Amino acid sequence: VSSPLTHRDKGGVGQLLAMSNHVILLEDGWNKLKTGGVLKIEEILEDAQGGVYKHKISTDEYSQLYTTVYTMCTQKPPNNWSEPLYNNYCEAVHDYLTERILPRIKDKHDESMLRELVRRWENHKTIIRFLSHVFKYLDRFYVKRLSLPELAEVGSQKFLEIVFNAVKREVRTAILELIRRERECEQVDKHLIKSVVEIFVEMGSSRASLETYATDFEEMLLSTTADYYSRESAKWAEKDSFPEYMRKAEDRLRQEADRVAHYLHSSTEEKLLKVCDEQLLQNPEQLLLEKEYSGCEKLLLDNKVEDLSRMFRLYSRIPTGLPPIANIVRKHITDVGLALVKKQSSNADGDLMPYVQELLDIHDKYTELVGTGPEKGCFQGHTIFHKAMKEAFEVFVNKDIGKTATAELLSNFCDNLLKKSGERLSDEALEEKLEKVVRLFGYLSDKDIFAEFYKKQLAKRLLLARSSSDDAERSMIAKLKLRCGAQFTSKLEGMVTDMNLSQDIQSAFSDHIKDKKIKLETDLTVQVLTTGFWPTYKSDDLNLPKEMLQCIETFKAFYDLRTSHRRLRWVHSLGSATVLGTFRPSGKVKEHDLMVSTYQACILLLFNEADSMAFSDIQGHLNLPAEELKRYVLSLCVGKYKILTKSPPSKEVEPTDTLTYNVAFSDRARRIKVPMIAAKITQEEKDATRATVDEDRKHAIEAAIVRIMKTRKSLEHQKLVLEASTQLMRHFKPDPKQIKKRIEDLIHREYLERDASNPNLYKYLA
């Protein structure tokens, strides 16, 4: 843009110097400044077209004006005209704005008025800038000395008071109308809007102040925006599906952000988008989420990942946006889980392994939905959805299937993964599935029930060499330890340690019999277990054959030499043996290595003395309970490998039945593993496990109470129950009645006492 001050006139310098030597009277000086400066610059700007000036003020003319001001301000009193000049300047600006600018703006309307305002403001800034230079000396000394408003500030303030305040309502209405039209997808002059908005910004009391912009424009902008989107929201909510509504809302929010970037002040963005969020998202949220055929529940049922992701993006913008969604997610997952429980409960007597797999599949599905972090999953791993998912799973994972607790089912599932005869997976797949099981385990309220069943199954896998992988066993224990602490897995770790120590003891025993030149009729391998780590096993009074008896006595003597403070208790029910069987099928001698349990081996060894024997005689020789012995006998005569024959040949065993060595037995394999007839886990055994858990819980509750009281010394009943519950919650959900019972027992045993004046207060007895 060319400047109205570009032409240089070479003449007149001598005249300028000559003038400076004469006293300038106020009227003469001001007339010269007004005619040659104020009025001339006004006319130049008035005649300009498209930023091109027809006339210009030369540099020499400017110098004469400046010198006139300088002289009038530096003359000695009474001819120092600083104060009158300042007042005349203010009056000239006032007259110019009142008589020439305001009427011309008021003559126009709507967009034309806006364009006129922008033009007049730009011209006004040019005039003030020019006059500020001309009156620079006045500014630097007189204004500064008296702390008066600077001339440029006076110019802006006068424009605000005379012009802007007179037309601001009409201007605001016009500009808001343009914004409305743009929202209705009409083409508007964005540059014009930006220019007018900048005037509102510049009308502030200082450059840093946005008071005028905020009060005279922004407040009404936000108000009209709220009204506009309130109407739009109601219209969309009535006719559009929830996904379609969200797409429109997201598009409008993007448009509003662009609107700020194009022509609004940056400080407006947060406030404008907040208003949009309130009208488009917050106010109609419940209505939208509960839409019958397209609401949040429907999106979850149909697994609409894109729409769910958009829903999270939008509603995470508002502080109260996510909790209602989390509630729906919680209810949805709970309903899905309870439906699975109901379906499985109707088939509680069938195979329950698929139920655990379905639980894992559901958990995988919703873990993927919730996500594990930013940019992952529809809900980007937000804590409120993890909490909702956790609470939902805790509801149905703790429901029993028939009479079977999920804790037991999870343990059975792990057993099936970790034993040789179970599900076959690669190391990576096994590790991944175990990790998923442990996550599901985290939702159990009765983790100690899982621990008890898991301990029994781990014992079988270790003692009967059924583990598919020692690394997998250790990995599973490590995962449980990480989730529940060292105390939870101490017994499991002790069991694994015992197995390793047993190998060392076995090596020492082998060296012992070699050094002592002890000859055993049978090879013997012993696993020495620490009673406190392992499940409780029934003792038996099995009468061992002499071949086995010699081995046991030899080992006992060896062990007694190693330690004097431990006593061995033999658990034959978990033992195994390899027996060499000699048969004569078709008259030819054929030998088989029979891999059997200790009880099966004892039964077979009796047939070295007689080819046939009554069941009652076998029981008399071995001294085993009849029901237990029947299962072992049947495994040898009606199973896959008929080592013995039974007369009469039925699947029931009576005391009078005769068992005979099957001399004609034959099989292709030399080495045969004779399977046991699986004993179904009876309700009595489950009840026994529960009883063990209940007993352990008593000790855990008492230990927690004593720990708390030892620290606190005295505590009220409710606080003690609460603290004990909090400590125990990691392993099981304690019953307050049970805690009260244990408190009473500890009082009886003189660990605690009631306060004499307050029976609700307990004291610790050191």
Automatic annotation (TrEMBL):
Domain spans labelled Cullin family profile: 405-637
Alphabetic keyword roster: Isopeptide bond, Ubl conjugation
InterPro entries xref list: Cullin, Cullin-like_AB, Cullin_homology, Cullin_homology_sf, Cullin_N, Cullin_neddylation_domain, Cullin_repeat-like_dom_sf, WH-like_DNA-bd_sf
Keyword presence, Ubl conjugation: yes
The organism's place on the tree of life at top rank: Eukaryota
SUPFAM superfamilies: Cullin homology domain (SSF75632), Cullin repeat-like (SSF74788), Winged helix' DNA-binding domain (SSF46785)
GO MF term set: ubiquitin protein ligase binding
UniProt record, GO biological process: ubiquitin-dependent protein catabolic process
Family: Belongs to the cullin family.
Protein name: Cullin family profile domain-containing protein
Organism: Strombidinopsis acuminata
Organism lineage string: Eukaryota, Sar, Alveolata, Ciliophora, Intramacronucleata
